[in-house]
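go over whats below:
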Amino acid sequence: MEDPGQALDDAERLVEATQEVRHALVPSTLHGQRLDRVFAQLVPEFSRSYLQQLIEQGDALVDGRVTTKVSAKVRLGNQLQITLRATPQSQAFVPEAMPIDVVYEDEHLRVIHKPAGLVVHPAPGHWGGTLLNGLLALDPKASEVPRAGIVHRLDKDTSGLMVVARTRQTMDALVAQIAARDVHRQYLALAHKAWAGPVQKHVDAAIGRDPSHRLRMAVVDLTHQSGKTAATTLDLLAQGERCCLVRCTLHTGRTHQIRVHMAHIGHALIGDGVYGGAPLGGMVRQALHAWRLAFVHPITGANIDLQTDWPQDMAAALQPLGLSYNLSPGM
C-alpha cells in the first residue's frame, strides 16, 4: 500500500493546478532502466506508484510516442515527457470533514463508533468519503501515521467499535496485540432461522477466497485450497420462529469471518445478500454490529473495555422479528 503521507503530499502538490507537464532527457546513468524507475529518478518529489498510474493511463511519452508499459526500457538521449495530473489514488488520502463518534480518546489512541454505510479505507469505487479521510480531517497529525492509524477494519455495512492509533508506536503495539489475539472483539448479529442445538457453538473453519465468486470468501479445506485458519464462538441470546440473535466472539480476524461462519452453519445474516441472507424486519443491510471492544492500553497498561448500544436499525428490527433482549455491561 502506498504510504499515506506520501500520497497526501502528492495530492497537495497538484491542488493548485489540474496538471503539469515535465520534460527530461535520459542521461547515461539511466540508460537501459525501466521507464517508471527513470521517472522516479527524474521527478523524485512524486512517489513511484503514483508515476506508474500516470504511465499506465497514457500520460507518458518517449520520443513523442505514448508509452503505457511501466517496464519499457529507455535509452540514452530519449526525450521523456510526463503529464502530472491528479488521479483518484493521489487524491484519496486527503482530509474530508465528517462527523465521527469518538467514544474514547487520549493522546495515544481513539476508539470510534463507525456507522453502517461508511467505508473504512480508500479503494477502487470508494476513493473518497471514507473513515480514513475523516480521520485526517479530525487530527492533522494522522497523516504522520500509516493508514491514518487504522489497525483493523469493519465492512462498509457493519457498524460498531474500532480502535485507531494516534502515533506510530501505538499503532505497532496494537497491530502486535491483534496478531497475538489479545484484542477482544464481540459482535451482535441478527440471523435467519431458529437456532438448534447447544446455545453456544464454536466454529473452527478456515476461510479463503471463494473460487466461484471473486467478491466472496468461503469456508475452505486447507489441504486443497489456500486460506487461513479462522475461529468464532457463537452464543445464542434470543430467538424467534424465523430468526435468532447471536453474540459472536472473534478469535481471529479474517475477511467477512462472522458472515462466512454464520452462513456456514445455516444462519446467514439478515440483510446479507452476498452470503444468502435477505432483508427482514426492516433490516436492509447486513445485521452485524461490533458491540464490544476490549484490550490492554499498549502505552499506559490500562484495561480498556468499551461497549455500545444497539444501532437504530437493529433496535427497530427486534420487535418485528419477535426478539427481545436488553444489552447490559458484561453480558
The mean pLDDT is 90. Residues 32 and 234 are 59 Å apart (CA to CA).
